Amino acid sequence: MAKKVLMKGNEAIAEAAILAGCRHYFGYPITPQTEIAAYLSKRMPKIGGTFLQAESEIAAINMVYGVAATGKPVMTSSSSPGISLKGEGISYLAGADLPALIVNVQRGGPGLGGIQPSQSDYFQATKGGGHGDYHMIVLAPSSVQEMASLTVKAFELAGKYRMPVMMLADGTLGQMMEPVSLDIKEAEKFDTSWALTGTQMKRKHNIVNSLSLIPEELEQLNFERFKKYEIIKENETMYEEYLTEDAEICIVAFGIAARVAKNAVNSAREKGIKVGMIRPITLWPFPKKPLYDLSDKVHTFISVELSMGQMIEDVELAIRCKKPVMLCNRAGGCIPSPEDVLAAIEKANKNGGAL
Amino acid sequence: MSTDKILIAGFGGQGVLFLGKILANMALQLDKEVSWLPSYGPEMRGGTANCSVIISDSPIGSPIVTEPDCLIAMNLPSLLKYEDIVSKGGKIFIDSALITEKSKREDVNAYYIPATKIAIDLGYPKLSNMVLLGKIIKEFEDFNLDTVKAVLETTIPPKKQDLLKANLEAITAGYNY
User: Fold this and answer.
1) Are the Cβ atoms of B66 and A337 closer than 8 angstroms?
2) Contact A326, A313 (CB under 8 A)
3) Lowest mean pLDDT among A136-145, A238-247, B136-145
4) Can you give the pLDDT at residue A247?
5) Residue of chain B whose alpha carbon sits nearest to that of A32
6) Alpha-carbon distance A207 to A210, whole Å?
7) Are the Cβ atoms of A6 and B37 closer than 8 angstroms?
8) Strands in B31-175 per DSSP E
9) Interior CA angle at A118 toward A117 and A119, to 5°?
10) Is A262 on the interface with B (CB under 8 A)?
11) Given an 8 Å threshold on Cβ–Cβ distance, is B41 in contact with A115?
12) Per-domain boundaries in chain B
């Protein structure tokens, strides 16, 4: 096994992007993700890559669009308010079927909000955020190691399906250090015959565009894109199951919330409460099937979130409201403690499935 | 299976985060699981700073320390804010050059080290964090001076290797206090 090093989550994303083969980064500083830009500003020039601090988030995402159109792995990163600014560009990437990685190290909102960790951009990430009918694949790491490995995965998924992929992290994961193994291979490469690389007068022009003025043609593009989404739902849904086999209560949590919830699950198990956890690793596509399958076995679900309750709606849809779903949450930059989650588990255990 | 939850707190500029980073790297050298989480915010030098370090034999869940087994208090506000949440039987390290009050907890082990004074006397006024680290190393059976030396050699950048000697002197002074 390769020697592990201590790294911040933000730095792990940046280094993994380089190892994955990304040589183009465009960004604009914002807490709590600035280490990604800082790290790449040092590394990219040394390896012949491009680091560019744009004049704004909007400029940065459009530079991403430009490189993506040439078929090269490209990324940008920001935090919540900055991601809102990128919304238009992300929609254009989706509309032009272009691969790119967008990292959102979330902070509390709405508005300028605060700079402490949050998961309140869940709706924005999983339901669109920009305009139009589209999805991004949304990856939710819960450790520094996973931030590295999912970065590589993100480039592969983006390339394979020709679409934007979002890494949805939060301030805690971005700022914390953990040992990480950087034994990382370059991301798998995919067909880029569609890319704008110059015809050399030997082929017809490729066109990358998100404008389509004939309704029937635009409809067809939407149909095709959604066929692709069905394939992604089938093949790329990722989640971790923890102690669900005999569980009567199921926690659903992602990212930092899942770390906190795991402590609570362990404490509850010590008290003899049969509780398990499903941790979605892809938030879109959402792991509907394992949750639906569990809905016959458990009497209560608990959604643990750093928001006013956003993922809870997807949990309810996934289990088709067959069982009560409790919300255990903090917002605005606060994080639920393991004791908060344990209290929710004990309440669910006492109520036994009654609301 | 043991887990040590450490909370380091003081003013920005005292080397709170760096002290945590050295502890985390020492744990990594010993092949332990480790997490390091800084408080981050708009504060700069003179503001408050704290840092959670968890060292464990098993995978770490939440990286947030809510009930520290070990508190390192580098100023009075930090001691007052956090001494009540230290676990029973835990340790509190106090820079007694800056904090003249005693811990009111009777169910913990409190260590009083005039770290800032020792550092000034050595001629390294900024290294009170390393003096405290020396004392911490002495009180934790997993750690020793060889581990910290190995860590410092890799953590201090090549251009600043002259700082290695100063840091080691400060650590040794704390260790022997």
Assistant:
1) yes
2) no
3) B136-145
4) 98
5) B40
6) 10
7) no
8) 33-38, 48-56, 70-73, 91-95, 109-113
9) 140
10) yes
11) yes
12) 3-176
Direct distance between the N- and C-terminal alpha carbons of chain B, in angstroms, rounded to an integer: 30
Q: Name the burial class of residue A274, with classes exposed (0-12), middle (13-18) and buried (19+) by CB atoms within 10 angstroms of its CB.
A: middle
Of the partner residues B24, B61, B62, the one whose CB lies closest to the CB of residue A177: B24
Task: Name the nearest CA neighbour of A83 among A48, A119, A44.
Answer: A119
Interatomic CA distance for residues B64 and B5, integer angstroms: 9
User: Which pLDDT score is estimated for A22?
Assistant: 98
Say if CB A325 and CB A301 are below 8 A apart: yes
Mutation target vs B (from A4, A177, A328; most B CBs, 10 A cutoff): A177
Q: How many CB atoms lie within 10 A of CB B31?
A: 10
The CATH class given to the A240-351 domain equals alpha beta
Neighbours of A329 (CB within 10 A): 22
Give first-to-last CA distance, chain A, whole Å. 49
Taking the Cβ of residue A260 and every Cβ of chain B, the question of whether any pair is shorter than 8 Å is answered with: yes
Q: What are phi and psi of A138, to 5 degrees?
A: -120, 120
CA–chain centroid gap for A318, Å, is 19
Q: Do B38 and A175 touch (CB under 8 A)?
A: yes
- Residue A104 CA to residue A8 CA, distance in Å, equals 15
**Domains of chain A by residue range:** 4-185+211-236, 240-351
Query: Residue A218 pLDDT > 70, yes or no?
Result: yes
Query: Structure tokens of A272?
Result: 């003899």
- Chain B residues with at least one Cβ partner in A under 8 Å: 21, 24-25, 28, 33-38, 40-42, 60-64, 66
User: Which amino acid, one-letter code, is at A216?
Assistant: E
Q: What is the pLDDT of residues A59-92, one digit of tens each?
A: 999 999 999 999 999 999 999 999 999 999 999 9
Would you state the CATH architecture of domain A4-185+211-236?
3-Layer(aba) Sandwich (3.40)
In whole numbers, what is the pLDDT of chain B averaged over residues?
93
Residues of B in contact with A341 (CB under 8 A): none
d(CA A17, CA A27): 14
Pairwise CB contact (< 8 Å): A115 & B61 = no
Tokens of B106: 């009777």
| Chain B residues in contact with A32 (beta carbon < 8 A) | 40
Judged by CB atoms closer than 8 Å, whether chains meet at A337 and B28 is answered as: no
| Inter-chain touch A6–B34, beta carbons under 8 Å | yes
**H/E run at residue A325:** strand A325-329
Residue in B closest to A4 by C-alpha: B28
Backbone angles phi, psi at B13, to 5 degrees: 105, -15
Q: What CATH number does domain B3-176 carry, 3.40.920.10, 3.40.50.2000, 3.40.50.2300, 3.40.718.10?
A: 3.40.920.10
